[in-house]
Amino acid sequence: MAVITNVATPASGGGVFLLSAPGDVYDLVISNNAGQTAFLGTSSRVTSSNGCPIPNGQSIKLTGQGAGSTTDLYVVVAGGAASGTVGYVLTTPR
Amino acid sequence: MTSRSIYTPVGAAPVQVYTPATVGTPHVVVYNNGPATVYLGGAGVTSTSGLALPPRTEVNFSNGVNAIYAAAGGVTVSGTATTNLTAAATGGLTSNISVGTTANFAAGNLVQVGTANTAEVGTIASIPDSTHLTLAAAVVYDHRAGATVATVTGASTGTVKTVAGTS
């Protein structure tokens, strides 16, 4: 089992690249400590309207990802908050 | 703690798959129960912007205070082959479907079974005889005899299961 941790600093404007997942099947926990709701998406075009919301201080867990799916993840924060972090823990292989 | 399960068909247009409860601490698990990747996000979600959820995978929102929408890329009926079920197909069980004819169908074809809210897309694994198509996986929904079976292209419809509750 390999565990990778990383952080990305949210910024205003387009989505910030968060991670490019490996080809293996993986689990992923994404935690939002950016001070405002964060929104996840698969391209830099992610916005607070089309992205998947994570409330501040909360995390989501994705299970069984990979296997040829779109694997790039981008994040943007409501209001373009410039402080705080969005982090993740990626676990592979299962 | 209470919870409930809901199945929602997903097409090209965003559809709301989860509405958070207004009391307690809402939580939700969103599971992609369909054959294609669906994308989760807000009301403006598209297949090029949302969070990708491949088939047979799930995402757990331990504090799901926001509404969640889903979208897929839509589907086009190709018109090369069309028939109807001659016997009902049971969701989760039936992969060998009975049809009026297998003419113009081929192994590997994508086929849409049913219409409207219970339409779903599967892949023909084999054609055992002139009145049966064997799909790669059992249908997700129940389909009555007479339901349309047609080849499609660009298939990316999906089905999302949400298990939501409060604690």
CATH architecture of chain A: Sandwich
Question: If strands are numbered along the chain, what order do they take across the biggest sheet of chain B?
Answer: 8-13-10-11-12-9
What is the H/E order of chain B?
A: EEEEEEEEEEEEEE
Summed up, the helix count of chain A is 0
Work out the number of β strands of chain A.
8
Largest sheet of chain A: 4 strands, antiparallel
Summarize the structure.
The complex is a heterodimer of chains A (94) and B (167). By secondary structure, chain A is mostly beta strands.
Notes on the structure:
The complex is a heterodimer of chains A (94) and B (167). Chain A is an all-beta fold and 94 residues long. Chain A has one domain (2-92): Jelly Rolls (Sandwich). Chain A is 0% helix and 51% strand. A four-stranded antiparallel sheet of chain A has the order 1-8-3-6, with no helix packed on it. Chain A has a four-stranded antiparallel sheet with strand order 2-7-4-5, with no helix packed on it. Chain B has strands at 2-10, 15-18, 26-32, 38-41, 51-53, 58-61, 68-71, 76-84, 96-98, 110-113, 120-129, 132-135, 148-153, 158-166. Chain B is elongated, with a radius of gyration of 17 Å. Chain B folds into two domains: 2-73 and 157-166, Jelly Rolls; 76-153, Thrombin, subunit H, CATH 2.40.10. Chain B is built from no helices and 14 strands. Chain B is mainly beta. In chain B, the strands form three sheets. In chain B, strands 8-13-10-11-12-9 form a six-stranded antiparallel sheet, with no helix packed on it. A four-stranded antiparallel sheet of chain B has the order 1-14-3-6, with no helix packed on it. Chain B has a four-stranded antiparallel sheet with strand order 2-7-4-5, with no helix packed on it. The interface between A and B is medium-sized, with 32 and 27 residues. Strand 6 (59-65) of chain A pairs antiparallel with strand 6 (58-61) of chain B, so a sheet runs across the interface.
